Amino acid sequence: MKYISKRLGFYLIAFIAAITLNFFLPRLMPGDPVQMYLAELYESGGRIDEATIRAVEELFGFNTNEPLIVSYFKYVKNIFTGNWGYSFANYPQTVLQAMSRGLKWTLFLMGSGLTISFAINTFLGILVAWKRGTKFDTIVTVGGQVMANIPAVIIAIFLSYSLAHTGIFPRGYAVTPLMVHANAFEYVKDVAYHAFLPVMSIVLMSLGGIMGMRANMINQLGEDYIVMGTAKGIPDRKIMLAYSARNALLPVVTTFAMQIGFILGGSLIIELVFNYPGLGKVMLGAINGRDYPLMQGILLMSTIIMLSANFVADLAVLFLDPRIRTEGKRG
Amino acid sequence: MNIVLEVKDLCVDYIIAHGRHVRAVDHVSFNIKEGESLGLAGESGCGKSTIAYSLLRLHRPPALINNGSIKINGHNILDMKQEELNLFRWQEASMVFQSAMNCLNPVVRLEKQFFDLYKAHGITYKRSEARKMTKELLELVGIPGDRVRDYPHQFSGGMRQRAVIAMALALKPKLLILDEPTTALDTVVQRDILKRIYDLKDKLKFSILFITHDISLMMEFCDNIAVMYAGEIVEKATAQNLLHAPRHPYSFGLKNSFPSLQGKIEYMEGIKGNPLDLNSIPVGCRFQERCFNASDICFKKEPPRVHVGENFFHCHNPLSESQEVPCG
Amino acid sequence: MIKRLLNIPVVRFLKESPKTTIGLSLIIIMLIVTFGAGMFTSHDPLHRYKDEYHSPPSEEHILGTTRLGRDVFAQTLYGGRTSITVGVFAGVIAVSISLVVGVTAGYFGGLVDNVITTIINVVMVIPQMVLLLIIAAMLGGSSPILIATIIGFTSWPFGARVIRAQTMSIRSREFIHSAETLGETKLRRLFVEIMPNMLSMISSAFVGTVIYAIMAQTFLEFIGFGDPLSVTWGTMLNHAQTTGALSSGIWWEVFGPSASIIILGAGLTLINFSIDELSNPKLRAQRFMSSYYKEKKKLMKLEAKNSLGSSHVEGGQK
Known about the structure:
- The complex is a heterotrimer of chains A (331), B (328) and C (318).
- In chain A, 76% of the residues lie in helices and 0% in strands.
- The model of chain A has no long low-confidence stretch (mean pLDDT 74).
- Chain A is built from 14 helices and no strands.
- The radius of gyration of chain A is 24 Å and the shape is globular.
- Chain B has 328 residues and is an alpha/beta fold.
- Chain B is built from ten helices and twelve strands.
- In chain B, a hairpin with a 2-residue loop joins strand 9 and strand 10.
- Chain B is globular and about 70 Å long.
- By secondary structure, chain C is an all-alpha fold.
- Helices cover 77% and strands 0% of the residues of chain C.
- Chain C has 16 helices and no strands.
- Chains A and C meet through helix 1, helix 6, helix 7, helix 9 and helix 11 of A and helix 6, helix 7, helix 12, helix 14 and helix 16 of C.
C-alpha cells in the first residue's frame, strides 16, 4: 500500500542518516579518538606498535590510508551486514553481543512502561474530558501537570529512596543476582518484582500525556457529530467511548510516536538510577570506558527502536482512520 | 388540532465569566401544530440555532436554559431525566444539522450510524434487519441501497445531506427540526432537497421547524414564519401575510433584502446599522437603532405583544396592513 | 483607588486565572531567590565547614550540610543561577532554530518545505538523549555553557514542526491574502502579519524547551558530565549520589535541588497551560464551569419549588 511504502522509505532514509551521523561523529569531535584510546592503552600497560595502531584504526574505521568516501561505504555496508565492530571495553565481544543483554531488558522496560502508561493516560484522559469542570477534573489535571514537569531523574530518585530504602522493593537489578529460579513462574515473579519501581517511574513520568488526550477529547466534544450522536438519543457513555474517544485517539497516537524519544531517554535515566541492566547501564559502561564503537552501536540500536516504534504507530493510525485506508475510492 | 411543539417564555443564557452571563434567547414563546411548518428567520447570531438546540436539550456548558418550558407532544422536555430524554430524542423530534459532513462520524460506516440509532432505541439488535430498514430509508431520499457500507467522505455533498435527512426520519418523529439544511449547497440541489422533505412531510405526516436566514426560501415552503431579532421573536405571521403585509419594520426590511427573480430591477434597501450587541441591551425596543419607524416611546418602553388572529408582533409603531414602501 | 487598580485588564486576568498567577509567582520567587541569593543566605556555597559534615537541617544551616561540610541551602540558591541560565540559554537557541526552520518551511512551501520537513522528521527520529550522551562523552565532560549549546542544538525539531504547521495555517488565512493585494512585500508580511499570531506557539515552545533543558542538564550532571568544580542542581545530585547520601539517609542534600527543580518546573508548566488557554477559548470555558454549575443548582431549586406549587395550573393549560 502506498502509505506503508512511503513510511518505510522514510525510515530507510532516517536510518542511513543515523549511520552517516554515526560515522562522522567521532571525526567531528576535537581530539583524535584513536590517539586517546592508544594513550589509555599505553597507560594500562599495553604494547603499542605498528600492528596495534593499525588494528585500532581498523576498529574505528579510521583507516587513514583510504579516502573518506571509501571508509564511509565500507562502514555502511558493515552495518547492514550486521558487522557493527568490536567493543573496546568488552573485547573480544562484538558490539552487538555486548548490547544484547542490555537490549533485552530495555525493551522489556520500555514496552511494559509504554503499554501501561498509554492505557492509563488514555483512560484518564477520556474520563477527565467528559467530566470537564468537576473537582475530579481539576485534581487529575493539576496532578498530571505537576507530574509532567518533575524530571525523570527526580522521580526515579524519589521512588528509589522512599520505597526501596524501606525494603519493600529491591534497589536494583532485573532479577535477584545469583538466584536460580525454581520454575518459569518464579522467574516471572522475580522479574516483575524488580521491574515494578522502574516501570512505575516510567508511568509517572508520562502522566503528562493525559493533558494531550484531554485536549483532544475536548476539541472532539465540540464537533457536530458528537452533538448529533447525543441528539439521536445515544447514551452518554456510548458516545464517550465509541464516538469521542475513538476519534480523539488518532491525534494521540501520532503524538505518541513523537513522545517515544522522550520515553527512551527517560528509560535510560531510570535504568541508571535503579541499576537496571538495560542499554542505559551498557551506555554508562561504554562512556566510562571510552568505548566508542559500543556507544555508536547503542546510538544506532536506539534509533532502530525509535523507527520501529514509529512504524507501529503508523500501522495503528492506518487501522484507526478509514480515511487513509479508502483513499482514492470515491462515490 | 394537536399542538406538537409548545415553547413558553424560553430563556437561554451563556455564562461568560464568574457571575456574568449573556442572554441569547429572551422569553421566547411560540407553537407548532400538527402538520404545520414554521420557519424561524433572522440574522446570524439572533438566537435561532440556540432555540433549536434547546428543543432537544443539546446545550453544553457554558450554555444554560434558565427559564421557561418546552413541551413536545405534551411531554415537558426540561423536566425529563436522562434515560427518558435519550429515548425521547430522535423518536418524538429529530434534527437535521447545518453541515452534513460535520455531523456524520467520519470514521464509522453509514450503516453502523443507523444501527447505533436502532440499538439505542431498542428497535432492533440484528444487523441484517437494521441494514434492511436503512436501505429502505435511503431509497426514500434517493440514495442507492448499495452505498450503505460506505464512509461519509465518500459521498457527494447533496447525497450526504439526503442521508442525514433519511437518518432524521428513521424513527418517524412528529417534529423535524431543520437547522440551515441547505446553506452549504448550491441552489439546484437546495430546491431538490427541500421538495423531497416536503413530499415526505405529507407522506409521513410530521411538522417542521425550518431555521434559516433565507426568507425567500421560507416564504415558499413554510406555512408560518416567526422573525427573530436579538433573541426575541418580533413577529409571527402566515407566510402570505409576511410577504404582502408585514407589520414589524424589521420583517419589512428582511423581506425587502431579497431581490425577486422577476420584476424590474430596483434599488435595494438593506437594513441600516449592525446587529445588537447582547452585552449592552438598550432600554425600550431592541430594534430602536435600526428602525425607520422609531418614535420616542420606542426608546423608553418595551413594545407589547399584539395579537391579530393567529399572528402576533411586538411593535409600538407597526406598519399598517397596506403600508407603502417608505423611502430611506 | 485600590478598586481601580484591581480592575485594569491585566490584574483582572490574573485574578480570573489561578494557573497563571501561581505559575508566574513560582517562577518569580525562584528567580529572586537564586539570583538574589546573597539576600537569603550568608553562607558561601563552596566553603567547607569543618566539624559539620553531613549535619541535618538546623538554625545555622537551613538545609543541613553535605559530606564535605558545605551548606546545602546556599548551594541550592547559588547553584540555581547556573541551572536556570543554562536552561534559558538552551531554550533560546532551540527556539531560534525552530523559528527559523519552521517559518521558512511553512511560509515558502513547495520544495523548500519538503526538504526541510524530511530533515525535521529525520532529526526527530534520532533519540535525542542518546545523542546528547554520546556528544557529551566524546567531548569529555563539559562546562554548563557547552551543555546548554548541545541541548539547544538537539531539541529544536519538535518546536519547528509545530511552528511550521501554524505558519501554514495562518498563511492561507484571508488576512494574508488581503495584505498581499494591498501590496505588502513577502518579507514584511512575514514579520508583521504572521509572526505576532504565533506568539503563543513560540512562547509555549520556549517554556517547554527550558523545562526539557533543565532536565537534560540535571541528568547529564547527575551521571557525571558536569563540571565538578561548579555548583549546580545537577552536580549537587551527583555529589549526593556518589557520597552515598541516599543510602545513609541524608535526605536534605537531595531535597534542595529536587524541590527547586520541581517548583521551577511546576511554574513553567502552569504558564504553558495558561498560554494554551489564552489561545484556545474552548479550554477557557472550563474556568466558568463552577458558575455554570451554581446557576444550574439555582435553577433546579427553583423548578422544585415551582412544580410543587403550580402543577395544577400547568395541567389546565392548552
